[in-house]
Write a structure and sequence with these properties.
The chain is 32% helix and 23% strand. By secondary structure, the chain is α/β, with parallel strands linked by helices. The chain has a seven-stranded mixed β-sheet with strand order 8-7-16-17-18-15-19, sandwiched between helices. Helix 1 packs parallel to helix 9 and helix 6 packs across helix 8. InterPro entries: Amino_oxidase (IPR002937), FAD/NAD-bd_sf (IPR036188).
């Protein structure tokens, strides 16, 4: 087994999990990573005393795969308060626990966000989904989330003021056309678990998986140009011969025959600003309903103090789409921040922007898991990545494990 050459393309979550599972079975895989760091879409930069995640991301503590692969205590997770701060023009109000404890929502706050009936509907939906298995959720017929919410009987008020801005930030699309399966899964996870970030940033998650690897080699700055049969052609001109290959990046990038098979990914622009102090002063997500450039905001140091070590507050702002130049976008965002907070626009000091062109896969048919056979392209090439299932940390991990199981299964058949 030791002599078998198994290459994994990509050191994101699914590639790292695939390596971990192969190691457990006695193999020593090699990961080829185009960039100079592990983590794929999950990275944290240190800049001027701030920790900045590439895009606003959270870990849901109810994810089954997170419990399987991560030591949640060792990550020193910092939880968000369930709910959201809604910024509605000059007004702002807090809805606490809408999915965790729907009946406890104070009547007053909900009257601006939704109706009494919405509260009851929230409660029934929570109870229904807690009883439903994840597999069952993904076997349901699929309709767009906005249609699902209407058919369930939620009022336009709560759809526009809470569901839209909250789930737009998760699905990274404005109209909630995402499958109701994904909505049910995410809603259930929020009802059961906490949204959290590791104390020192989301990059701690891939780092924790990497520390579990002992026999895997990772080659950085090693971009794969193309895979043909069992041969891997590198951008450097080198070629590698493999026994098995797991492609843990979007495969059309390295396999010519798969080009045109994938819808363009969902994008997000994540801007960071610093401010003397947070105007929210609680570990909550802020939502801007209606038609704004900004979809959601979070003061990251309200959630985990370690995100800022320089005495200033760190504001993460997510923008779903914009045609503006970067300097115009910064100005426009600063103006929106001033209008919701009353804090002068120039006090929001711009630090950095991440234009994330591949933030989430754009999928029609969402699944919770797939049989091993479905991640096998040829006898030697296997696929891993959340695009095979659904856009989530849970799915990235599931797909890495499934690809490794498929490779192991292929050896059982040949030996």
């Amino acid at each position: 087994m030791e002599e078998e050459k198994i290459y994994i393309v990509g050191a994101g979550l699914s590639g790292l999990i695939a390596a971990l599972e192969l190691e457990k079975a006695g193999f020593s895989p090699v990961i080829l990573e185009a960039s100079d760091a592990i983590g794929g879409r999950m990275k944290t930069d240190e800049v001027d005393g701030f920790l900045m995640d590439h895009g606003f991301q959270v870990l849901n503590t109810a994810y089954p795969e997170a419990k399987r692969y991560l030591d949640l205590q060792a990550l020193h997770l910092k939880n968000f308060e369930p709910g959201a701060v809604i910024f509605d023009g000059k007004d702002s109000y807090i809805i606490t626990d809408p999915m965790r404890n729907p009946l406890k929502i104070v009547g007053m706050a909900l009257s601006k966000v939704g109706t009494f009936l919405d509260k009851i509907k929230m409660f029934t939906l929570t109870q229904e989904l807690k009883k439903k298995s994840n597999e069952a959720i993904f076997n349901e017929p699929t309709v767009p989330t906005h249609q699902y919410l209407k058919e369930y009987g939620f009022s336009d008020l709560i759809i526009n003021n809470f569901f839209k801005p909250f789930f737009r930030g998760i699905f990274l699309e404005k109209h909630l056309n995402t499958s109701s399966r994904m909505f049910e899964f995410v809603f259930k996870m929020f009802a059961l678990g906490n949204a959290a970030v590791p104390e020192k940033g989301m990059g701690q998650i891939p780092s924790m998986i990497r520390r579990q690897l002992s026999k895997t080699q990772i080659y950085f700055s090693t971009a794969v140009k193309e895979i043909e049969g069992k041969t891997i052609y590198l951008e450097s001109g080198e070629k590698l011969e493999a026994d098995r290959i797991i492609i843990a990046v979007q495969p059309d990038k390295v396999m010519k025959q798969l080009q045109g098979q994938f819808a363009p990914a969902r994008q997000v622009i994540n801007l960071y600003f610093s401010l003397q102090r947070s105007f929210m002063a609680r570990p909550m997500i802020g939502l801007l309903p209606g038609d704004h450039l900004v979809n959601n905001i979070v003061f990251m140091d309200d959630v985990s103090k370690a995100y800022s070590s320089n005495g200033r507050s760190l504001l993460s702002v997510s923008v779903l789409e914009s045609q503006l130049s970067e300097s115009e976008l910064i100005k426009a965002v600063q103006a929106e921040l001033e209008s919701i907070s009353g804090v002068n626009a120039e006090y929001f000091k711009f630090i950095r922007a991440y234009h994330i062109s591949y933030a989430l896969p754009n999928l029609d048919d969402l699944k919770y898991s797939i049989p091993m056979t479905e991640c096998k392209i040829t006898d030697h090439v296997y696929l891993a990545g959340d695009y095979l299932l659904n856009g989530s940390i849970n799915a990235a991990m599931t797909s890495g494990r499934t690809a490794a199981e498929a490779v192991l299964h292929s050896y059982m058949q040949t030996h």
